[in-house]
Design brief:
single chain, about 210 residues, Glutaredoxin, two-stranded antiparallel ribbon, 5 helices, about 15% strand
Length: about 210
């Protein structure tokens, strides 16, 4: 009888440990209210549930129109960059290339880089940039598009920048953030794309979502 009780105690303990580990592994779902208010448009600051990344229409390094349909049922990382950037962008792009290599054979994972200087980053410029950086076209879209649309995505969908603006001629954003988006278009993590420690954390988080 004593041994039976001991067996059940051990069994329950194992179940509790397993459940605890599962809880620890669960990634949060980010809503506007979870971010620093400086990152969130005033119209969204009080929203605390059901945020999804907005639909987008961009043009990639091959002149192809890219939309959310190209990322349907995918987990993806988004960043905002520009090809002539000589400070944080090269580090970010190198880290994105490392992530591409890490998940190259995982069909669930894709990458999306969006230019914040679309008037400069033409398709031909993006094509050269993609080739130089070892971009795998089926895996990683380097994109340009309408500036106002892009800046709205950065500010109202991905919450990637502090600076407010209207996406006009003088408006400019610059951010090191990598944003992790799940298959339901929900934000599941935000990382410093220039930090090796954050990239390692991102790799772990991506594996949690794909397992």
């Amino acid at each position: 009888m004593r041994s039976v009780k001991l067996y059940f105690i051990v069994l329950i303990s194992c179940c509790l440990i397993s459940c605890s580990q599962m809880v620890q592994q669960e990634l949060p779902i980010y809503n506007p209210s979870d971010f620093n208010v400086e990152l969130v448009d005033i119209s969204l600051q009080k929203k605390n549930k059901n945020h999804k990344v907005a639909d987008f229409e961009l043009i990639n390094q091959n002149g192809k129109t890219i939309t959310q349909e190209d990322y349907k049922d995918k987990i993806y990382i988004t960043d905002f960059f520009f090809t002539s950037c000589s400070t944080i962008c090269p580090i970010m792009t190198n880290h994105m290339a490392e992530l591409q290599k890490e998940f190259l054979t995982n069909d669930e994972v894709k990458f999306l880089s969006i230019s914040v200087t679309p008037e400069i980053d033409s398709i031909s410029v993006l094509r050269k940039y993609a080739t130089d950086k070892g971009v795998v076209d089926a895996k990683w879209n380097i994109t340009t598009g309408n500036k106002k649309h892009i800046y709205n995505l950065a500010r109202k969908s991905y919450f990637a920048v502090v600076e407010q603006g209207d996406g006009g001629l003088q408006d400019f954003i610059h951010t090191p953030k990598f944003i992790l988006v799940d298959k339901k278009k929900q934000i599941r993590g935000v990382y410093d794309g220039t930090s090796e420690d954050d990239i390692l954390r991102l790799i772990k988080d991506l594996k949690k979502l794909t397992n």
